[in-house]
Amino acid sequence: MARYTGPKSRIARKFGEAIFGPDKVLSKKNYPPGQHGNARKRKTSEYGIQLREKQKAKYTYGVLEKQFRNLFEKASRTKGIKGEVLLQFLEARLDNVVFRMGLAPTRSAARQLVSHRHICVNGKVVNIPSFSVKAGQVISVREKSKSLEVIVDALAGFNHSKYPWLEWDKSSMAGTFLHLPDRTDIPENIKEQLIVELYSK
């Protein structure tokens, strides 16, 4: 399964945001990495700004270039605003839904839960992180995995009401994907129009 495995704090410092979750290094060094990271910034070109936004979206959702490009092309063929549809498709990825439901502290941890066969969709184990969840499908924890420390710890005190497109049932440790989220409900700081402009060149 292809994914980014490099230094996450370095990437978070590059964007100035904790895109992989809480980051101790970023809180101490909130400037780009490298010898000249804290020096005066150069003006970035329009292309550079657009490319940076695409890279940020890719790292945030843990998607590599080919997958991201395919999702954009799929969004382009779908009715709606391209950039918003792209984010909706990213939000519908199984690893992201598992993360949003509070079953894992980060998307990379959620991806691991999925690939290690701890997650079910409509009662059947699915181990493909990029699986696209559809409206009405139920995401649950496999019965023998419900006592896993990483899941129990992640769920402790998690606010399940902050994502209106998801519904959580505490007793069964399962959640329903109600519908694709509206753009205003997606909390990620991503300027999706810049990504559309980049791919439209």
Describe this structure in words.
With 201 residues, the chain is of the alpha+beta class. The chain folds into 2 domains: 94 residues, Ribosomal protein S4/S9, N-terminal domain (Ribosomal Protein S4 Delta 41, Chain A, domain 1); 87 residues, Structural Genomics Hypothetical 15.5 Kd Protein In mrcA-pckA Intergenic Region, Chain A, CATH 3.10.290. 41% of the residues lie in helices and 8% in strands. The chain has 9 helices and 5 strands; from the N terminus they run αααααααβββαββα. A 5-stranded antiparallel β-sheet has the order 2-1-3-5-4. β4 and β5 form a beta hairpin. α3 packs across α9. The longest helix is centred in the N-terminal third of the chain and has 16 residues. The chain is globular and about 50 Å long. The two termini are 30 Å apart.
